[in-house]
Design brief:
Largest sheet: 10 strands, mixed
Order of helices and strands: EEEHEHHEHEHHEEHEEEE
CATH topology: Rossmann fold
CATH superfamily: P-loop containing nucleotide triphosphate hydrolases
Bound molecules: adenosine-5'-triphosphate, magnesium ion
Number of domains: 1
Number of helices: 7
Distance between the termini: 32 Å
Radius of gyration: 17 Å
CATH class: Alpha Beta
Number of strands: 12
């Protein structure tokens, strides 16, 4: 099976070398757990390998996406509109956004032949659609378009504040081939408080260990227990 290296130090070894090609991966976690960083790092790994990527941003405008990447030393600006495409959808402009999604994002996706797609976040994207049935249909359609285009994707998702093991809309994990959960661990005795686990990853063996990770000025680093 073809693998897509994530660019996240320590993560690929947990699942036999990377995401299975064509998978839709949901990266879920509470605010500040590094979901956006994960997405940026994944896209950047593709750029470094000469692949094309699209980053669909619902949270930040293009300038702040560039600035966030820059803060890790990833020069998105140098690759923008060449092999790195940033599409901004503003959830404030609901009607235009839905149209932009279909006319802009999905078309760009097909035209440029991107191999990596990031949606940050699928939670905000889902909110563009008013009723439950439409939301479900559109999220499924999006995942299908991305897959049909031959891309391997990362959808970030917020967790439900009452249950940090499910996403806020309870939808994303069902369209996903893989789910990665980022968490603050409540163990007060350690100063390491962020943990990552692979909850689900279709068609591959993977680690089920709960691994500590850090967000550094070079991005996310997953530690092996030996590094603790
Ligand atoms: N350049 C950087 N160097 C080191 N640490 C950083 C850097 N940028 C961000 N961080 C750390 O990463 C944390 C979370 O980053 P990120 O924005 O990826 O999380 P998130 O899960 O997307 O949050 P939100 O739910 O608010 O969108 C920040 O609060 C900060 O602690
Ligand atoms: Mg974010």
């Amino acid at each position: 099976m073809e693998r897509v290296p994530t660019g996240i130090y320590g993560l690929d070894e947990m699942m036999g070398g990377g995401f299975p090609k064509g998978h839709t991966i949901v990266v879920m976690g509470a605010y500040g757990t590094g979901k956006t960083t994960f997405g940026l790092q994944y896209i950047w790994e593709g750029v470094k390998r000469g692949e094309k990527g699209i980053y669909l941003s619902l949270e930040e405008d293009v300038e702040s996406v560039l600035a966030s990447a820059e803060s890790f030393g990833w020069d998105f600006a140098a690759h923008k509109d060449r092999n790195l495409f940033i599409v901004r959808l503003d959830p404030q402009e609901a009607m235009t956004s839905v149209r932009q999604l279909k006319d802009g994002f999905v078309r760009t996706l097909k035209e440029i032949g991107a191999t990596r797609v990031v949606v940050d976040s699928i939670t905000l994207l889902a909110m563009l659609f008013e009723d439950e049935a439409e939301r479900r249909r559109e999220i499924f359609n999006l995942a299908r378009s991305v897959k049909a285009a031959g891309a391997t994707s990362v959808f970030t998702a917020e967790v439900d504040p009452r249950n940090p093991y499910v996403t806020r809309d309870g939808l994303a994990e069902y369209v996903a081939d893989g789910v990665i959960l980022l968490r603050y661990e409540e163990t007060a005795s350690r100063d390491l408080d962020l943990t990552l686990r692979i909850v689900k990853m279709r068609r591959t063996r993977h680690s089920r260990k709960i691994k500590p990770y850090r967000i550094t000025d070079e991005g996310i680093i997953v530690l092996s227990e030996a590094d603790l």
